[in-house]
Amino acid sequence: MTNLAIAANGLRKSYGDKVVLDGVDFAVPHGTIFSLLGPNGAGKTTAVKILSTLISPDPTSGPVRVGGHDLAADPRAVRTTIGVTGQFSAVDGLITGAENMLLMADLHHLSKRDGQRTTTELLERFDLTDAAGKPASTYSGGMKRRLDLAMTLVGNPRIIFLDEPTTGLDPRSRHNMWQIIRELVADGVTVFLTTQYLEEADQLADRIAVLNDGRIAAEGTAAELKRLIPGGHVQLRFEDPAAYARATSALRDTVRDDQALTLQIPSGGTQRELRAILDRLDDADVHADALTVHTPDLDDVFFALTGGARIPTQPKEALR
Ligand SMILES: Nc1ncnc2c1ncn2[C@@H]1O[C@H](COP(=O)(O)OP(=O)(O)OP(=O)(O)O)[C@@H](O)[C@H]1O
């Protein structure tokens, strides 16, 4: 438990009859990025609100520790170690970016001098120095998100909850935000990230959990999750029809495209599987002109896990 920044067992939350979280476990090691994926309404924000002490879990819920503190017994201690940014921005549009930062510094009881220094440093780090004197309402979406995160960092939190931090941002702003998140983690911060962008989880997260119907449908690294889904294959392309014909008879279980002279062989893309295919081609003295390995992406995983499609039984011990 002690090496975990966030540890939740059997987290439950219902609103009336509606069960939103139905016994969810989280185990997030310090200094890592954990991403919670799920369709709209899956309960991601609810999980963030509980873990960040904004709302209480059900009384039947299991124990939760954040930053080493028990959430139920010592929510105040939890609050001192965490920062939250997300769909409900703390940015006040009527005052300037710098004023927003200084307000945050006040809330954290920083001295005037420390507040000024921290504000200047963070605005600089988040590329907001030029806009510091302008009302936040005039900021673009990306600037507001950066200001929001900068405000969160005033308290120097060791665990940060980012609830859909890049929703609505253009690709460049999204990449900027990813870079900022990577730098935070390089400094030892733990990030709990919710997102609807599978690519975001793929890019950033050490571990990913897919929330569906109030439960974790699967958890693992991006690579582990992708391996759960069938559909990976190796594609061979030939320019010489004679070589194509020889390969077709040398290899079993292929999907042929006689027009394009391509063959698809179901494969997980492992070294051993690739070697077996290449050995067969060598034995038949055939040379492919191109070989590509296709692995399912996280979109495939997401649809399979949240769309009711059957997936192969998950080897739990390998994933957890
Ligand atoms: N205060 C509330 N009272 C009643 N139902 C609620 C309340 N807050 C959330 N819910 C319901 O709980 C479910 C989960 O909501 P939540 O906001 O956690 O989902 P989410 O995964 O964050 O979705 P999104 O991706 O759309 O933000 C939804 O069906 C929502 O309507």
Automatic annotation (TrEMBL):
Taxonomic superkingdom: Bacteria
All residue ranges annotated as the ABC transporter domain in the record: 6-238
Topological type in the membrane: Peripheral membrane protein
PROSITE patterns hit by this protein: ABC_TRANSPORTER_1 (PS00211), ABC_TRANSPORTER_2 (PS50893)
Primary location recorded for the protein, binned into one broad class: membrane
Coiled-coil ranges (or none): none
Pfam families: ABC_tran
Classification via PANTHER family: ABC TRANSPORTER ATP-BINDING PROTEIN, DOXORUBICIN RESISTANCE ATP-BINDING PROTEIN DRRA
UniProt record similarity statement: Belongs to the ABC transporter superfamily. Drug exporter-1 (DrugE1) (TC 3.A.1.105) family.
Protein name from the UniProt record: ATP-binding cassette domain-containing protein
Organism listed in the record: Micromonospora halotolerans
Lineage per the UniProt record: Bacteria, Bacillati, Actinomycetota, Actinomycetes, Micromonosporales
